[in-house]
Amino acid sequence: MPLAGRSAYILACAVALGAASGAASTNSRDIKLPPETAVLTASPLPGYQIAAQKCSICHSVDYITLQPPAMSLKQWTGEVAKMQHAYGAPLDDSEIKPLAVYLTAAYGDATSVPAADMTVTGTVPAAAGIDVQALLDKNACLSCHTRDKPLVGPSYDDVAAKYRNDPKAEPTLEENIRAGGTNRWGQVPMPAFPNLNAQELKALADFVLGQR
Ligand code: HEC
Ligand code: HEC
After folding, report:
1. 118-145 tens-digit pLDDT
2. Which of 8, 79, 110, 144 could disulfide-pair with 152, CB 3.0 to 4.6 Å?
3. How far is the C-alpha of 52 from the C-alpha of 131, rounded, in Å?
4. Contact present, 71 and 104 (Cβ < 8 Å)
5. Is the Cβ atom of 180 under 6 angstroms away from ligand 2?
6. Residue 133, ligand 2, Cβ within 6 A
């Protein structure tokens, strides 16, 4: 499928570069990569972790994010298999299905994925590479919240309980952590955290909801 993205780039010679990395290369400073403009949408689906590791080895994530939104599970399965067979992506056969499920859910026609494949068992892992404890410490969340007792703000147990049956719990909490606010629990305002990026907000919302 053609690519419209100006920022998409390909490292056609990634393998050759890797092989040559031991040898001193006088050309290396001539290789300039455009900054990565897209990141994969974080997801608790197992395919997210695999995609994060393996789908940007050869090209930017734009190659994925710029695909038509109507692509079905079958089409994404074909696309992933093509990366494996035609282009030599280092994928195990057992990784094809989780990858296709994640890519379809995140970028394609999610309705083409059987509900059973969307079910995540166990606790929701935080987005890759995000240390929730460090985020809580750095942003002083725990100076106003504890896990089980109300402090300046509600306990995370109470927040999780309040949102237990809310299907929009996660996006709501992401937004409420980012924007702060008042009157949901009392008169004391929660400060805004505009410094947190989408993946950090998701990791924090997952963490709070995980208290239930
Ligand atoms: C070994 C290198 C390699 C890896 C790893 C790789 N790709 Fe690709 N990919 C390519 C090449 C080569 C192209 C074609 C580039 C072009 O035509 O400009 C491509 C193109 C694409 C395209 C554009 C549509 C198309 O078919 O040309 C998509 C979407 C894509 N890759 C998705 C993925 C996904 C998802 C993964 C992870 C499962 C992945 N790629 C991993 C080499 C790779
Ligand atoms: C200065 C104290 C303070 C700090 C720091 C703070 N909070 Fe809060 N937080 C509050 C208060 C007060 C409320 C209740 C606000 C309300 O009533 O609407 C709250 C509410 C919340 C809620 C519930 C939102 C809802 O929709 O019910 C969540 C989740 C939350 N905080 C998470 C965090 C996280 C994560 C951090 C760190 C990034 C953080 N808080 C830092 C005081 C704080």
Report:
1. 776 544 444 567 888 888 988 889 889 9
2. 144
3. 16
4. yes
5. no
6. no
